[in-house]
Please model this.
Amino acid sequence: MEIPVRHATDDEVAFFDSHGWVRLAGLVDPGTVAALRERATTYLEARGREHRTLVDQAFGQSRDIAQTDDLFNAAARAMGGNAVRLLRGVEAVRIQVTNLLVKEPGEHRATEFHQDFPWMPMDRSAMLTVWLALVDVPADMGSLRFYNGSHRYGLLGRSFTRAGDDQLTQHPWLKELELSPPLDLKAGDATVHHALTVHGAPANQRDTPRLSFTVTYFDADALYTGMPYQQTDGLGLEANKPFDHARFPCLRP
Ligand SMILES: O=C(O)CCC(=O)C(=O)O
Model:
C-alpha cells in the first residue's frame, strides 16, 4: 500500500532548521486522512481511560498503532522521507514510535511544555516527531506551540516526572525566546518538531475531540545507550550497537 505524501520544500527545511519546528500544510490528502480518522476513532474508543500519569492527564494515547494497522504503517513509512530531509546530515531514519493522540474537551488538561529527548536511550539527538492532524484542529482545540530555536539549547531535563517540572518552571529564561503563533490546522496538515524543541499545547476548548497521528523518527545510525526505558527494555538490544530490531524499521529514501 502506498500513500501519497508531499515533500517538504527547501523553505520548510530551512524553517525547521532555524526554528526547531515547521508546519507542513496539506501533507496528506483529504481522502487518506478521512480513512485514517475513521480507524483512529475506533481504536481510541477501545483505549483505557485511566489517568495514572501526568501524561495521561494531558492526552490519551494508542501507542504503536502502525505495528498492527496497515494504513497507519503505510502512512508512517511514507512520511519518513521528509524526516530524512529535515534532520540535517541524516541519510536514513528508523521509526521510534507511532501513536494516536486524543485530547478530549473537559477530560484532558493542557500539555505542559517539555522536550521529548530527555527520556530517550539513543546516543544522538537527531530525532523528530510528525504530528498529523486527523481533524481540523483550530488553535483553541490544542494545536502545538513551540519555543522557537529552543532545540539549540541541548538537553533541558525531564518533564512529567513530578508536579511543577514543566520546562518553563525549570528554565524561566525560555520565555525570552519567541513562542510560535497559535496555529489553525486543517485535517491533513502536520507540524513537525525536533526532539529537543520545547513544546506544549493548550487544553481543548472546543466540544469535539482533538485527534492526531504522530510518528517519531530518529537517525538510523544512532546507537543504543542501554539507558532504562520502558519501550526498549527487554528487547535484547545491545549497548553501543544500532537499533537493528523489527520494532525500529529503517527507512532509506
Ligand atoms: O499532542 C500533544 O498535546 C503533545 C504531543 C507531544 O508532546 C509530542 O508529540 O511530542
Q: What stands out?
A: Residues 58-59, 101, 103, 111, 116, 129, 131, 142, 199, 201, 214 surround 2-oxoglutaric acid (CB under 6 Å). The chain has a mean pLDDT of 96. The longest strand covers residues 93-103.
